[in-house]
Amino acid sequence: MRQGKLKTFIAAIAMTGSGLLLAPGSAQAVPSFARQTGMACEACHTVFPELTPFGRRFKMNGYTIDNIPQVSGMTPSKEQTLSLNQLPPLSFMLQASYTSTKTALPDSAVGGALAKNGQVLLPQQASLFYAGKIAPNFGAFVQMTYDGVDDAFGWDNTDVRYAQNANDQTLWGISFNNNPTVQDPWNTTPAWQSPFDQKSSVAPAPGAATMLDGSLFDMSTAGLSVYAWINDSIYLELGGYHSAPHGLSQIDSTAGQATINGLAPYWRLAYERQWERNSWEVGAYGMVAKVYPGNGNALSGPTDQYSDWAIDSQYQYIGDRDLLTFTGTYIDEKQTLDASFANGDSANPSDDLKTLRLNVSYYYMRKYGAALGYFSTTGSADSGLYAPNPIDGYANDKPDSKGWTAELDWVPYENTKFALQYTMYNKFNGASDNYDGAGRNASDNNTLYLLSWINF
Q1: Contact at 8 Å (CB) between 202 and 181?
Q2: Is 429:401 a contact under the CB 8 Å cutoff?
Q3: Longest dimension (CA), the chain
Q4: Which CATH architecture does the domain made up of 3-455 adopt?
Q5: Which of 21, 38, 22, 19 is nearest to 30 (CA)?
Q6: So where are the chain's domains?
Q7: For 61, which of 238, 276, 337, 436 is 20 to 30 Å away at the CA?
């Protein structure tokens, strides 16, 4: 993104946010998970998975508010030793999808032929959740997922928390999680970005992404952070992440997966103001990691360092009939590639990546929705990292990808969503035309995506 446009974007957030954040506010927080509390999904969500102010407070409170019978234990001095839901707060998610690109991909097995276009996945994903209270002040959101593309089960988003209220408007807590930003209360950060939180898993996707956008770790880390929510308006968090690869076969350099050297610090700061039916958040977050690149290279010696800083903002209007949300985030990454440069995997000793996402969504009566989003990732030219290759290669040694995503939603019930999504690329992996050196254009990857999403 050009420097002038970035300054304009930041200034617009600051000016608009200043006016709205200074407006008179009132704090409201009575959130719950439906099965645990007996309350409808709309208490915590506008349209899932986007959280309301109630839902954010519930998450920060450690998922522990309940309204079902408990199995309890007490000491003779009346100290509570056990408070366990009689029925565990379990949920199940099923996703089925259809994906079609504008131009079919080349057939990898037959030269000059095209592969089948129009992929049906049933399921695309199937997940089992434990989401709720474990003990007093202690709760979890744990997801295990079957991936229909990889035909494999694995741990997905996981966030285990202890939280304690200091008073009616202030609380503190500890989060143990497996993915930077999965613990975040807002839907601007990469783990829970909304409205485009679900995309096709079988269509070509841009190859370059920042560390915080999931390019390095993607739920293969273990993180511990301490956070505070002060006066129902200020959120502070500080933590660290360490690599947590899955299985003995994933702990050596042959696995090809980046491995954090030591501890990678993570930080988050946000300010939210609530007034009447409105809420507005402005924040910043970041992470620094020294990483062994893997790919057959020794897990010792020089490392690559990735330094990400980001700003974000989210506005919500939640009315009886109308739901309106604006989100935006900008991530700037500085890369010091000591290991990759020494190994000949990068042409430059240092690079950068910048990602911008701006989204707006509207729902009528929580049933009919529309969303539009703009995305852009740009960065340094590097012939080592961004080389030509059919389909997933790069043009001009550049990682640049830009485009738009539009979505129409029908939500007949609060736990059921049907989505029609179309992604259009203006630029893909460095160019608009012949980006891979084999004749494929950015627009050939334009993707039609139909999704059915059921939670019960």
Answers
A1: no
A2: yes
A3: 79
A4: Beta Barrel (2.40)
A5: 38
A6: 3-455
A7: 276
